[in-house]
Structures are given as C-alpha cells and as structure tokens.
Amino acid sequence: MKQYTVYKGEKLLAMGTSYQCAQQMGVTAKYIVWLTMPTAKRRLAKRKNPDKATVCDVID
Prior knowledge:
The chain is an alpha+beta fold. It has helices at 18-25, 29-34, 38-46; strands at residues 3-8, 11-16, 54-59. The longest helix is centred in the last third of the chain and has 9 residues, at 38-46. The protein is globular.
C-alpha cells in the first residue's frame, strides 16, 4: 500500500495512506492521489505562490 506525505509550504499536513491523509484533511482519497499526478504538478508550477500550495508526495 502506498504511503503519502502532504505539505502546505514547509508544514506537514498529513502522512499515511491516501485514505488516512484524506480523513486528516477532510477531503477525498481521490484528491490525495490526484495531487501526485503530473497534471497537478504542472498546475503547481504555474501558480504565483507555489510555496503556499498543497503538495503531495509518494513515499516508497
């Protein structure tokens, strides 16, 4: 099972499976998985303040 870490800037918001992270943040598990997709990464790069964006990484 994949493990995820979710950050907003330097602050760690959640860590665990997509379901666990979603429960901690009050969002869906699909949203956590979507944050790891290339589309989300491209949108992050286009933001004016990417340091204030929510970012998710997969832990191997």
